[in-house]
């Protein structure tokens, strides 16, 4: 069974005011006291000092992955408390923030190259790594994932507010993220050789610093034998992150099986895929999405059902089908992180209360 690992970015906020706090160095210093020297650090610094990132270990069982996410979120909350702040699984800050770029040659290069776009990238995502047998299989998977990734954006949407304002989007993080020149959906590659040639051509322009800055919606990991799916907002609740990881693995498995069976990928243009991404970011689960099967508008519930049907065999074989169905039904009934944030604001009229509520919800 394919293994899955999750990377989550969390926002550091003042526990009283809800405003972002540039305390990542203090949080990471406290986390380092608990790290085992021979092992890969769980927590890492991010582009901005108001953020911290963690990575789970690869897991083949989704219950274990969920337990890892819950445990590490709790550890992050403990380290943050010791540093005088709190962690919130928010994909953007509801309150205004003055960006503070982290120290380091790489981040200085990005700040100088991209200017205001770098300062605005205080956005928190959820990246899912799914194991693949080879680069050739990985690129075949990437080619076949493309139409379905917007549905993961809609399910995970958790960023309706930006700099103290209602954006009208469910996932405004995804719109900010597209300000990077290498971000977004990709055309069909057809082979690993063509994928790597495209990456080399991008690097040769001097516009991006290295392979890690190839911010495709789904890409080959530069470090691990995985396909990395990068379209999701950081999810407010750990169980939603598990759902996104479950569906990402099922999509990878289904795409690999289609490739082995000689089934060609859908030849949708990048223009259409960008429209589907925009619709998912705008609507979340509260309006129409673009159905990957027809590339026409359809209610969110219909599109989510299409996704579940597309990956049903893979979910059945991994033992995840019923849990995935129940989780999707729960999100459609009760709302995702974006809907929850809006409900709190409508009830209280306070963005501070939105943040403090999300701090508590991050631990559930």
UniProtKB/TrEMBL annotation:
Biological processes, Gene Ontology terms: modified amino acid biosynthetic process
Database matches in InterPro entries: GCL_type2/YbdK_subfam, GCS2, Gln_synth/guanido_kin_cat_dom, YbdK
Transmembrane segments annotated in the record for this chain: none
Alphabetical keyword list: ATP-binding, Ligase, Nucleotide-binding
NCBIfam families: gshA_cyan_rel, PRK13517.1-1
One GO MF term attached to the UniProt entry: ATP binding
Pfam families named among the record's database cross-references: GCS2
Keyword ATP-binding included in the entry's annotation: yes
Superkingdom of origin organism: Bacteria
EC number assigned by the record: 6.3.2.2
Catalytic activity: L-cysteine + L-glutamate + ATP = gamma-L-glutamyl-L-cysteine + ADP + phosphate + H(+)
Matches recorded under HAMAP family: Glu_cys_ligase_2
Enzyme class: ligase
Annotated signal peptide: none
Protein name per UniProt: Putative glutamate--cysteine ligase 2
Recorded family membership: Belongs to the glutamate--cysteine ligase type 2 family. YbdK subfamily.
Keyword Methyltransferase in record: no
Job description of the protein: ATP-dependent carboxylate-amine ligase which exhibits weak glutamate--cysteine ligase activity.
């Amino acid at each position: 069974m394919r293994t899955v690992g999750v990377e989550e970015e969390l926002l550091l906020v003042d526990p009283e005011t809800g405003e972002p706090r540039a305390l990542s160095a203090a949080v990471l210093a406290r986390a380092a006291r608990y790290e085992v020297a021979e092992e890969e650090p769980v927590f890492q610094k991010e582009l901005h000092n108001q953020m911290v990132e963690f990575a789970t270990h690869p897991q083949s069982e989704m219950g274990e992955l969920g337990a890892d996410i819950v445990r590490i979120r709790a550890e992050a909350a403990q380290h943050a408390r010791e540093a005088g702040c709190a962690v919130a699984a928010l994909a953007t800050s509801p309150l205004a923030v003055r960006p503070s770029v982290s120290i380091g040659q790489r981040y200085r290069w990005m700040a100088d190259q991209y200017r205001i776009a770098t300062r605005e990238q205080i956005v928190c995502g959820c990246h899912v790594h799914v194991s693949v047998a080879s680069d050739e299989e990985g690129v075949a998977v990437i080619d076949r994932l493309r139409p379905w990734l917007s549905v993961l954006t809609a399910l995970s949407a958790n960023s309706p507010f930006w700099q103290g304002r209602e954006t009208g989007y469910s996932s405004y993080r995804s719109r900010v993220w597209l300000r990077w020149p290498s971000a977004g959906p990709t055309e069909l590659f057809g082979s690993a050789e063509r994928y790597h040639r495209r990456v080399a051509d991008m690097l040769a322009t001097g516009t991006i610093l290295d392979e890690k800055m190839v911010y495709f919606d789904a890409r080959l990991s530069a470090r691990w034998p995985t396909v990395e799916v990068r379209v999701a907002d950081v999810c407010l609740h750990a169980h939603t992150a598990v759902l996104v990881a479950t569906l990402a693995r099922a999509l990878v498995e289904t795409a690999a099986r289609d490739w082995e069976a000689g089934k060609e990928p859908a030849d949708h243009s990048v223009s259409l895929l960008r429209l589907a991404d925009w619709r998912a970011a705008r609507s979340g689960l509260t309006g129409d999405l673009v159905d990957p099967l027809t590339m026409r508008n359809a209610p969110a519930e219909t599109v989510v059902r299409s996704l579940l049907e597309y990956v049903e065999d893979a979910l059945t074989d991994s033992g995840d089908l019923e849990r995935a169905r129940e989780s999707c039904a729960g999100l459609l009934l009760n709302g995702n992180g974006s809907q929850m944030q809006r409900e709190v604001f409508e009830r209280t009229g306070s963005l501070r209360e939105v943040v403090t509520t999300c701090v508590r919800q991050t631990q559930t």
